[in-house]
Design a protein that fits this description.
This protein is mainly alpha-helical. The protein has 3 helices and 2 strands. A two-stranded antiparallel ribbon has the order 1-2. It is elongated and about 125 Å long.
Amino acid sequence: MAKPQAHSTLKRLRNRYRLVIMNDDTYEEVVTFKLSRFSVYAMFSSIFVILVGFTVAIIVFTPLKQYVPGYGSQTARKDLQLLKFRTDSLESAMRMKDQYMNNLRQVLTGDAGLNLDTTIIKVPRPERSTD
């Protein structure tokens, strides 16, 4: 089986084709284009690059960039960090006050059970020397 050669592929890319647009009622040729596969590929690639560039330019150079997730102004980012810090400190202060109130309630109601260590420690006796 013969392998397709590189120059035959290039030849197929450069073969010229004619695209004719005709009026259906009168069969009159309205527009005629001479195209090749390579020119169609180059045209669509160029259109794609231009559209992507245009879209990126619109997002980068207009206020639309504020709607991109993860992008925001520096002041908004600083405000969010400050709010997070304040929230964390308020949560820890609230936890400490709750613990204080629970301890105070237990002491006032008499439920403050002291956890005394009731295990007996066995201390070894020193050996007596027999002199």
